[in-house]
Each structure stands twice: as C-alpha cells, then as structure tokens.
Amino acid sequence: MADTIPDIIFTARATGTFDFVNQRFEILTGVAPAAAVGFGWLGAVHPEEIKFVRDSWRAALQTGAPFYVELRLRSPDAAFRWFVARAQPIRNEAGQITKWFGAITDIDRLKNTEFALAAAQAQLAGHAEQLEKVVEERTARLRETILQLESFSYTVAHDLRAPIRAMEGYANVLLEDYSGQLDYEGKTLLSHIARASNRLDALTLDVLNYTRVSQEQLDLAPLSLDHVIDDVLMLNPSLKAPAAHIEILKPLHNVIAQSTLLGQAISNLLDNAVKFVAPGVTPHIVVRSEIVAASQPLTNTLVELPDPANRSVHAQFASGTSRVRLWIEDNGIGMDDAEIQKTFHIFQRGREAKGYPGTGIGLAIVAKSISRMGGRYGVHSAAGRGSRFWIELPQAAS
Fold first, then answer.
1. What H or E segment, with its residue span, contains residue 323?
2. Is 338 exposed, middle or buried (0-12, 13-18, 19+ CB in 10 A)?
3. Which pTM was predicted?
4. Which of 74, 78, 236, 313 is deepest in the core (most CB within 10 A)?
5. CA-CA-CA-CA dihedral for 230, 234, 237, 242, to nearest 10
6. CB 49 within 8 A of CB 55
7. Is 342 helix (H, G, I), strand (E, B) or coil?
C-alpha cells in the first residue's frame, strides 16, 4: 500500500532511526530504501540544510511534538527539488512514543512559485520606492518653482505700481491743469488713460496681495473669531452702518488659524457681500458659526479640501478633530451653478458681477488663505437670491 502512494512514506523507531522507506524514495532521490534506513536518508538532503533538518528531527524526538520541515532532496539527475517532511508520533496506552509515522511530499512547483512571487514583490517594491523618490524630487522641484514664480510675481507687481501710478497721476494733472487747451476727444482719451491706469494699479495691488498670501509665514494658533471679525469691522468703514447692516450672532467659536490670513479672508468675504447687491438695496449680512463634527460628510454645493502640503493641520482633520464652520450670508445678487464652479478661481467673475468694481482676485485670496491653513471653503447660492459663503477650520479650545 505504501508503494502505491505518490509521496515518500517512512517510519522510524522511538530513537529516531528510520526502519522503513517506500520505493517512492528511490524514484525521487535515486537512493535505495535499504540505504535510506537508519540515517542514510540524510545523504539525499541538500548540504545547506542537513544541520537544520537533523536538529529539527532531534527536537521532535525530545519533545514528542509533530515533525515539520521544508527541505531540498537530490534527484537522480543531481538536481535538487523542494519537499515538505511531516511525521507524527505513535504512542502506547501509557503515552510513550513507540513509533514515528511520516510522509515527504514534493512541493517544488509551489516553492518555485513562492520564490518567483517574492522576487516579483521585491522588484515591485523597488520600483515603487524608486517611483516615490522620483515623485518626491519632482514635487520638491515643483514647489521650488512655484515659490520662485510667486516671488517673481510679487517683485514684478511691486515694481509695476510706481510707473502705473505715475501714468495715472500725469493723466490727472493734464486733465486738471491743461483741460482748457484740450478738445473733447483729447479729454476723453486722457480720461480713458487715467481709468485704465487706475484699473491696472488695482490689478497689480491684488496680485501683490495674492502672492503675499502665498508667501505668508504660517504660525497657526488658537484664535477668537469674535476678535478677528471685530478688528476687520473696525478697520473697514465701508462695512459700517448706514452703508451696510452686518448682524453677528455671537459668541462665535474659536479656531486654529493664522491671524493675518484669516483676517484677510473674512475681510474679502464681507467686502464681497456688501458690494454685490442690487441697486438701491442695503446690504444685510448675517455672520454665524457652528461646530461641524469630524464624522459629518461634506454635502455642500462647492467644497475645496485643505492644501495637502500643510501636513500638520491636514493631520488634525484626519485624526477626528471637530471643525468650526463660519457662515457669511448675504442678500446680494447671487450666482448660478456655472458661476459657483469658478467663483474661487483667480480673475474669474460672474456675469452679473461684471457691472461691479473689482478684479476677480478677492475670492481667490480667500481660497488660498483657507487652504494654506488646512481649512475648507464653499458656497451655496442662487441667482437673485443671495449667497451663503462658508469657511471651515479646526476647532480650538474655548
């Protein structure tokens, strides 16, 4: 019966010496069963594994635990194949080991598959590591390029303001002091030059503000929204009555942010709320805050996620920190869905907004400021029905 089984079958005495090996051992190793009994079977074991196999067999004999090893045996063609050897002790009624019964199974194909898989995984890990290194290097170069471009934009915009303001000033001087010597067409052209210069100066100033936000040093700390908004209102006369009615539902919550960036973002949102109202309508703005649980899903019309480069604050969102959402709700002209999707992009203005002063950078500054602080922002709006802008930052302790 043992000779009909495709595995090697063996038995051993309690002392560990083999006393039976079936014919399959000779077929697979070239060693006759008579030569394999005793400890002759070790002669077919790969030289690198003889000590390990012998020690494992000795340990099983001493402890009575089942024997299990993976090993290589020499084939008749002198090549080595992988096998797994198992043996179980047979005990008498007194619990003493009287015999060992075992089998040795060919696993060469399975083992080679494991080796190939391990090699492929190692190769894949090497490729992944190399790819990650390339991505890190390119990301570092990209960040450096962005910083250089932002610095260049700041320098160019700063240097442009002087000649632009000079053009505007000279045009106004001509209009004031020499208007009697100019005909209607000349006065009209000078007025166009003055207005264009003023517009260009406003654009360069906004570019300066945008690049300043990009380069602002981030020192995040707990801040009171009450105090930040009070400072914004105090420094901006256009936000006071009777020009506008701003209702603040205090107390507002505390957030983790940078005071300058947060103040500029809130100032821009309030300026927009006051500016974009229908003719003859007094702006009415409601400012309130609420706690948003870390597990609450995002269901807003427009949501932008934190800047991934700001790892510290981004980690606070990921770790389950509650968030504060500040709402600024107005009775303005509102926006349709197409306008909402581009409202936070630089130099983008809605169709209805084109009749109002501005350069289209204000909300881009809000987006940049909030993203750099690890926050989120968005808006609910409908044409002719006002807008509800919101910004969201990690909550600070009271």
1. strand 323-329
2. exposed
3. 0.51
4. 313
5. 60
6. no
7. helix
CA dist 115 and 121 (Å) reads: 10
The single residue listed with the structure tokens 């709402």 is 327
- The burial class, CB within 10 Å (0-12 / 13-18 / 19+), for 260 is middle
Range list of H helices, 216-336: 225-235, 259-275, 311-318
Alpha-carbon gap, residue 253 to 74, rounded angstroms: 77
- CA 99 – CA 116 distance, rounded (Å): 38
What pLDDT, in 10s, does the model give residues 65-114?
A: 999 999 999 999 989 999 999 999 999 999 999 999 999 999 999 999 99
Domain 114-210 CATH (choose: 2.60.40, 3.90.1570, 1.10.287, 1.10.530): 1.10.287
Place of tokens 């570019």: 207
Give me the CATH topology for the region 2-106: Beta-Lactamase (3.30.450)
Predicted confidence (pLDDT) per residue in 339-362, tens digit: 888 888 776 666 555 667 766 778
Helices (H) and strands (E) in the chain, counts: 10, 12
- Hey, which CATH number is domain 220-394, 3.40.50.300, 3.30.565.10, 3.40.630.30, 3.55.30.10? 3.30.565.10
Query: CA-CA distance, 182 to 233, in Å (whole number)?
Result: 44
Pick from 269, 222, 226, 228: nearest CA to 250: 226
